[in-house]
């Protein structure tokens, strides 16, 4: 366990790929559970589903000191500026051009699939609005498909690479493609467009 940390971290079992995981209680980085999740998700955090640890948020990281500094800096900035924004984002399905709504929206979540270049269809039926589908971060996958030589296996780092690729000016060989039909062929689909409603802010609300 790392020394001299300001947050009370709990080391938990590594993920299936051997990446180290750490859990904190939401109160360490937010004034409310929702706010803490909002902050945590920007750095790869997820709800920690464990009956013995209520209110936990779990992170994968090889640089816990750096992660902690980023979380606490974000928390301080939020307090200083007095802001709390809903940073949802989403895409449209490539086969039907429908918004992928998150479960907090008025439309609720629905089953969608992230189609991969190697023929997989990653299922997600409770999209939370932060880019995770079937336990995979979409931006981290984008980095893995298009710039594997830059990836380090750290979800937070790889995600940042994917974001740079997604919003960069250069064409992407293997873009993100979401579908309502899991049997779609990756090669037959266009790239999914970002959702202007962010999967949450719909006109009918």
Summarize the structure.
Helix content is 23%, strand content 15%.
Stretches where pLDDT is under 50 for at least 5 consecutive residues are none
Helix/strand structural class: alpha+beta
In which order are the strands of the major sheet placed? Answer: 1-2-4-3
Question: What's the structural domain tally?
Answer: 2
Q: Biggest β-sheet: count, sense, barrel?
A: 4 strands, antiparallel
Rg of Cα set: 17 Å
Query: What share of the residues does DSSP label as strand, in percent?
Result: 5-15%
Q: What is the typical, i.e. mean, pLDDT?
A: 88
Keywords:
205 residues; alpha+beta; 2 domains; 3-stranded antiparallel β-sheet; globular
Walk me through what this model shows:
The protein has 205 residues and is of the alpha+beta class. The protein folds into two domains: 72 residues, no CATH class; 119 residues, no CATH class. The chain is built from four helices and nine strands, in the order ββαββαββββααβ. The strands form three sheets. Strands 1-2-4-3 form a four-stranded antiparallel sheet, covered by helices on one side. A three-stranded antiparallel sheet has the order 6-5-9, with no helix packed on it. It has a two-stranded antiparallel ribbon with strand order 7-8. A hairpin with an 8-residue loop joins strand 3 and strand 4. The radius of gyration is 17 Å and the shape is globular.
């Amino acid at each position: 366990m790392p020394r001299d940390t300001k947050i009370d971290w709990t080391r938990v079992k590594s993920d299936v790929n051997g990446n180290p995981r750490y859990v904190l209680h939401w109160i360490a980085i937010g004034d409310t559970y929702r706010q803490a999740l909002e902050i945590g998700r920007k750095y790869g955090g997820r709800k920690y589903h464990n009956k013995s640890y209520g209110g936990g948020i779990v992170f994968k990281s090889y640089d816990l000191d750096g992660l902690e500094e980023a979380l606490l800096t974000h928390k301080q900035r939020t307090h200083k500026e007095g802001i709390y924004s809903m940073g949802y984002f989403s895409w449209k399905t490539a086969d039907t051009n429908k918004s992928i709504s998150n479960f907090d929206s008025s439309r609720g979540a629905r089953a969608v699939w992230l189609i991969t270049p190697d023929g997989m269809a990653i299922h997600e039926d409770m999209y939370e609005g932060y880019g995770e589908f079937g336990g995979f971060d979409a931006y981290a996958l984008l980095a893995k498909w298009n710039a594997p030589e830059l990836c380090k296996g750290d979800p937070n780092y790889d995600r940042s690479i994917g974001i740079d690729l997604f919003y960069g000016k250069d064409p992407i060989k293997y873009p993100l493609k979401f579908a309502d039909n899991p049997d779609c062929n990756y090669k037959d689909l266009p790239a999914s467009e970002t959702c202007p409603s962010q999967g949450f802010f719909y006109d009918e609300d």
